[in-house]
Design brief:
single chain, alpha/beta, disordered N terminus, 4 domains, Nucleotidyltransferase, domain 5
Length: 589
């Protein structure tokens, strides 16, 4: 406060604050009320009388708060990982129910305490805008506050949005300018969704209409559900399946709806036929006519067969327990299997399964009569009374779907495949092979911050086959065993190569974890709790995440004495230390 604006009363006590040794440093003025003073440590307002101030300074509340302030900030996330550990981030931006923009950040790293790769909730950050500058600045600032070095960030998982991975002025480009070895990985799951969506555009538009409207027809009407249930139970003696709602962002969610519509095709056709006659409903008439068209049965049969394998691979990338070294093989097989439908076997045999991304398959596509669209499709086609020209049209459009699907996969995921190929070199069987051990010099050179001593790294790699390792089938356990292997002096024998391998295993290939976090956030901060602050939501998220990941669940969990000491009235309602106390309590988990 400028001295010329102070009243005599305020100036009198300001002099006392500045000169008194017991008050100096933690008492300040309250600008709105000159009869009050502020305790900077406890963040509370007091009467501006020296006696009251001295009594407050001797209180238990103030003394404990002063000890915490002298102890400095907590290590936060570094309580769970070493400060020099390599880590990856998985980030995504969304808008809360109250239109507040927020950035959810997950962290993936090798935990020396748990001896495994861990993916966990890191931070929920409120941001003003969803542009690249704001997001990258928020991430960088949070890492600095938590003592995490940006140079130790080896990978960042994002969706395919331009603001995240654009060539210029994106989050990826800003962070890569500060760390040129940073690996930017677009979510493979998002890429598969988009590949299937673009391929689906080559099929008739009314197929999507059937999928959407069959769900909408029953979603808000109990009367329609009961009427259809009676028809279905009469025909099959079973209860009908609820048709899934479509997702605006996850296109492959249509698969479940496609399968259920196909299984209930005849019952749905009868239901809409009755409704169109009794209620003169135009929507029911349209759906009845589409379900009566037998070519649509073939389209749905083809989609249920084709999308099934894409769904399987998509789930592998979403899984937290999938072996990352085998993901490349599954991704290659997905593309290879679809190409085997279109390309002659003799031509495809000349192509390595690891090189299918660069294969120009469109020059070798077979004639439509030679393309096999699956047993179910052929069986349906022979049993249904469909004209030959209509059948040829269906087969042609299904072929176009497969061509576009393969083209989209080749276009969208080559970078992810290249990274997966690098990681695949660290397969335990290859790493310990005396004959087929791959060369990793180029990989080590591209990650010089992880293994600065290249000669030692290569020497350690070449000496791996000389030892009989125990955990060969399990990739993660194998490299943990390598990291724990020590020499006669108790020093790590394979420090460099194990650090490189475990760091690469910490790279994220899916945004599934951050999507799951947003699902929990939408439950925590909902329409009834729309005024919940982002800071409070972040604290609730952290508690929920840790409790949900307890080994034996939270029902049998017994808190330690140290945990109980943190949960008292003075600490629980101290907003300044709220997050620190929660983190300290759960650091014992």
């Amino acid at each position: 406060m400028p001295k010329e604006k102070e009243s005599l009363y305020t100036r009198k006590y300001r002099v006392a604050w500045e000169s008194d040794a017991e008050l100096k440093g933690w008492i300040g003025p309250v600008l709105a009320d000159e009869t009050k003073s502020l305790c900077k440590i406890c963040k509370c307002t007091l009467a501006a009388h020296k006696k009251d101030l001295l009594l407050h300074g001797k209180s238990k509340k103030h003394q404990e708060a002063e000890k915490r302030s002298l102890a400095g900030p907590s290590k936060k996330i570094t309580e769970f990982m070493k400060k020099d550990s390599k880590y990856s981030l998985i980030i995504d931006e969304s808008t809360a129910v109250d239109s507040t923009k927020m950035l959810c950040v997950m962290i993936k790293y090798f935990s020396k305490k748990q001896t495994k790769i861990v993916t966990t909730f890191y931070k929920l950050i409120e941001i003003e805008k969803g542009d690249a500058i704001t997001i990258s600045a928020a991430v960088t600032k949070q890492l600095e506050l938590d003592g995490l070095k940006l140079g130790n960030l080896i990978g960042i998982g994002v969706d395919g949005a331009n603001v995240m991975v654009g060539a210029h002025n994106s989050v990826a480009s800003f962070l890569k300018a500060k760390n040129n070895e940073l690996v930017i990985i677009k979510c493979v799951c998002h890429s598969l969704h988009l590949a299937a969506e673009y391929a689906f555009k080559l099929l008739p538009r009314h197929l999507d209409f059937i999928i959407k409207e069959c769900h909408n027809w029953f979603s808000c009407s109990t009367k329609r559900q009961i009427a259809y249930k009676q028809i279905f139970e009469t025909l099959t003696d079973q209860k009908p399946l609820k048709i899934d709602q479509l997702s605006g962002t996850r296109w492959l969610a249509r698969y479940n709806a496609i399968v259920k519509i196909l299984e209930q095709w005849d019952a749905l056709k009868i239901h809409f036929g009755i409704v169109k006659d009794n209620e003169r409903c135009y929507m029911a008439e349209q759906l009845f006519q589409m379900l009566s068209d037998q070519t649509n049965v073939l389209y749905f049969t083809f989609l249920s067969w084709t999308l099934k394998e894409i769904i399987r691979v998509n789930k592998l990338f979403q899984s937290e327990c999938a072996d990352p070294l085998k993901l490349m093989e599954d991704l290659n097989l997905l593309l290879f299997n679809n190409l085997s439908i279109l390309v002659p076997p003799m031509r495809l045999q000349k192509i390595s399964k690891n090189n299918v991304v660069d294969f120009k398959f469109e020059d070798y596509i077979m004639d439509i009569e030679l393309i096999n669209l699956g047993y179910s499709f052929n069986s349906k086609a022979s049993s249904l009374a469909i004209k030959q020209d209509e059948l040829l049209m269906v087969r042609t459009r299904c072929k176009d779907f497969l061509v576009e699907l393969c083209r989209q996969i080749q276009m969208r995921i080559p970078e992810s495949m290249n990274i997966l190929e690098k990681i695949n070199s660290f397969n335990p069987e290859l790493a310990t092979s005396k004959i087929r051990q791959p060369e990793i010099t180029n990989i080590a050179l591209s990650f010089s911050t992880i293994c600065p001593d290249l000669d030692s790294t290569i020497a350690e790699w070449k000496s791996l086959p000389r030892i009989n390792w125990i955990n060969l089938p399990d990739t993660e356990k194998f490299w943990v065993e390598v990291a724990n292997n020590v020499d006669a002096a108790g020093e790590p024998r394979y420090k460099n190569i194990s650090s490189l391998a475990l760091a690469l295993l910490s790279l994220p290939f899916s945004n599934a974890s951050v999507e799951r976090a947003f699902s929990i956030i939408n439950v925590v901060k909902n329409k009834l709790r729309n005024r919940l602050a982002i800071h409070s939501t972040d604290a609730i998220m952290r508690v929920r995440w840790y409790l949900c990941n307890l080994k034996n669940g939270c029902t049998d969990f017994q808190p330690t004495e140290n945990m109980l000491q943190y949960f008292n009235s003075e600490r629980m309602y101290d907003c300044k230390k709220e997050e620190e106390e929660v983190l300290n309590a759960f650091s014992e988990l």
